[in-house]
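Board notes (copied after class):
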Amino acid sequence: MAKIKRKRQILPDNAVTSVIIALILPILLVVIWFVGSDNNLFNQSIIPTSHKMWLQFTKMISDGSLYEHIAVSFRRVLIGYLLGAVSGVILGILTGLFTRLNQLFIVLIGLLRPIPPIACIPLFIMILGIGESSKTALIFIGAFWPCLLNTISGIHTANPKLIEVAEVFGKKRIVILKDIILPSAVPSIFTGLRLGISTSWSCVVAAEMIASNSGVGYLITYAREMSKPAMLFIGIIAIGLIGLLIDLIMQFLQKKAVYWENTK
């Protein structure tokens, strides 16, 4: 009998089902929004109709304003996030490895960590002005704390018995760090990186809403002041979609980096 060739599935059945279930609520909300606004069930001065949304969206795409604001915000996030994430991971590794260093920073971390990054906006504006430096500093803080704390937590999750065995066999500290401690810490480090990028995106929007003449946050503030609800909603939706895209990219990178977790 001839063998029947099966088409190769791009996604497994359970993955397809998960995607479909995840899309149910967002699609339902969009349908309720469009149907309700188009039938005057909502106040159109607050919630625009789908037709007004489409006209505003096509206008912003054609004149390039939406792309420009998104690009400005993304550039700010990229710079601040890279500085904050690298600093947080490096200091987290050092603090997690060396007890004395941990004791040195523990009170300072406990004091500064509860302060919301947004609360620092007036201080950064006073010190650095309303230019790019204050926004970069705010994004830096937003990325720094999640990366630092999750890295420290990840370093402390290394199995002490494995470290003890490695020391008995005379392994050098650098080998123990590379082969035992860091692999144990990588999942927690990526959790910090994911939280850091989300917080950074929130911080840049908040900073742009207060002191900026460009970016998605500025776009939302401008739309509110000019009473343009369609533009305001486009800005809000752009924030959500970009945040979702960034998180999906981070999840993909985490699965590639922590490949041994997927085989369990």
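Comment from the instructor: The chain has ten helices and no strands. Residues 52 and 230 are 6 Å apart (CA to CA).
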